């Protein structure tokens, strides 16, 4: 793949080095593509993926950022072809937390009044509730009407993950691959830590989307590599499609594979051993990156999260 300014990404190693090295990386990146105003610090990139990576990296330091977009513009002095993504940090507390990143910037003095203010930061509209979770105030609640009689979709624009509701169920459908398992673990951690009664009362289910489609006269959906091998041996030569994500499915495919009560596969999540569950979640969501990485590599292909 040829990388250009609008599709470049940070290498994975950035997310596996020490926090001190990550701060040094952010400092160097900021000196090249960072901006300081009297109210915030911001990073700019034309790569949407890199903007998301920046936001994720900042969140690992407990810093909440916002991402805004600036459309391409052209005048006598400036000509741009791609959308610019601006990752901004506005809270005084977060700006102070990132001081090592921006303190050597030529405009560092612009922030002096803000960081020395005795008044409460009005930009911090959230509350920290743990090392990796924040709470936002619920300001309003409204009913969302279904866009069809089968499945309706609360989509995050540009994101293939969504929540679909049908017949009293609300399902967050994650992909069938390793990325999907990661998202599933994040959600289960949230429920386990902050809404354990939902699990104890048997209200949390995991929808199981297919990993492959085998097409020979009709479609056959399979849910693991082992099942793929077994069905392929039975059918012989056939067309096999691996689903990268649920966003690739049309409405009919999503209905027949994941939402149809006659054919869908759900797992109810329950707690069999609370102490072991707590240990597992702490390992998966804690600071020991290598332990988590080893666990995922060893268990991703056959993970069954009946915690």
Name the helix and strand elements from N-terminus to C-terminus, one letter apiece.
HEEHEEHHHEEEEEHHEEEHEHEHH
Shape: globular
Number of domains: 3
The description of the largest β-sheet is: 4 strands, antiparallel
What is the C-alpha radius of gyration, as a whole number of Å? 23 Å
Nearest-integer average pLDDT? 76
> First CA to last CA: what distance?
39 Å
CATH topology term of the largest domain: Endonuclease I-creI
**Structural class of the secondary structure composition?**
alpha+beta
Low-confidence stretches: 158-164
Architecture overview:
The structure is a single chain. The protein has 307 residues and is α+β, with helices and mostly antiparallel strands. It folds into three domains: 125 residues, Endonuclease I-creI (Roll); 116 residues, Rossmann fold, CATH 3.40.50.670; 31 residues. Helix content is 35%, strand content 19%. It contains eleven helices and 14 strands. The chain is globular, with a radius of gyration of 23 Å. The relative contact order is 0.09.
Quick structural overview:
Helix content is 35%, strand content 19%. The protein is α+β, with helices and mostly antiparallel strands.
Task: Name a few traits of the molecule.
307 residues; alpha+beta; Endonuclease I-creI; Rossmann fold; 3 domains; four-stranded antiparallel β-sheet; three-stranded antiparallel β-sheet; 14 strands
What is the fold's blueprint, element by element?
Layout (H helix, E strand, L loop, with lengths): L18 H15 E3 L4 E5 L2 H12 L6 E5 L13 E6 L2 H6 L1 H4 L9 H4 L10 E3 L5 E3 L15 E4 L6 E5 L2 E5 L4 H17 L1 H5 L4 E3 L4 E5 L1 E5 L2 H11 L3 E4 L8 H9 L6 E3 L5 H12 L3 H11 L8
Antiparallel strand pairs: 1-2, 2-4, 3-4, 5-6, 7-8, 8-9, 10-14, 11-12, 11-13
């Amino acid at each position: 793949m040829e990388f250009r300014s609008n599709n470049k990404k940070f290498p994975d190693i950035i997310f596996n080095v020490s926090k001190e090295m990550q701060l040094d990386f952010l400092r160097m990146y900021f000196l090249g593509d960072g901006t300081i105003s009297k109210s915030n610090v911001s990073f700019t990139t034309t790569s949407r993926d890199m903007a998301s990576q920046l936001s994720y990296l900042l969140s690992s330091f407990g810093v909440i950022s916002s991402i805004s977009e600036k459309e391409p513009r052209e005048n006598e002095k400036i000509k741009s072809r791609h959308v610019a993504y601006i990752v901004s940090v506005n809270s005084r507390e977060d700006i102070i937390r990132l001081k090592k990143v921006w303190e050597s910037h030529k405009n560092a003095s612009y922030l002096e009044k803000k960081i020395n203010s005795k008044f409460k930061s009005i930009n911090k509209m959230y509350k920290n509730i743990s090392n990796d979770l924040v709470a936002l105030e619920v300001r309003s609640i409204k009913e969302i009407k279904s866009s069809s009689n089968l499945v309706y979709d609360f989509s995050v624009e540009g994101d293939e993950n969504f929540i679909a509701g049908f017949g009293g169920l609300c399902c967050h459908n994650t992909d069938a691959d390793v990325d999907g398992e990661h998202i599933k673990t994040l959600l289960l951690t949230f429920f386990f830590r902050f809404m354990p009664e939902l699990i104890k009362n048997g209200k949390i289910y995991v929808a199981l989307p297919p990993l492959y489609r085998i097409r020979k006269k009709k479609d056959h959906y399979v849910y693991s590599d082992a099942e793929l091998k077994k069905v392929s041996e039975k059918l012989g030569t056939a067309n096999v499609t691996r689903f990268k994500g649920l966003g690739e499915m049309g409405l009919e495919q999503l209905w027949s594979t994941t939402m149809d009560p006659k054919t869908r596969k759900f797992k109810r999540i329950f707690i069999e051993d609370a102490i072991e569950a707590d240990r597992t979640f702490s390992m998966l969501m804690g600071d020991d990156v290598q332990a988590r990485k080893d666990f995922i590599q060893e268990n991703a292909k056959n993970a069954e999260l009946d915690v």
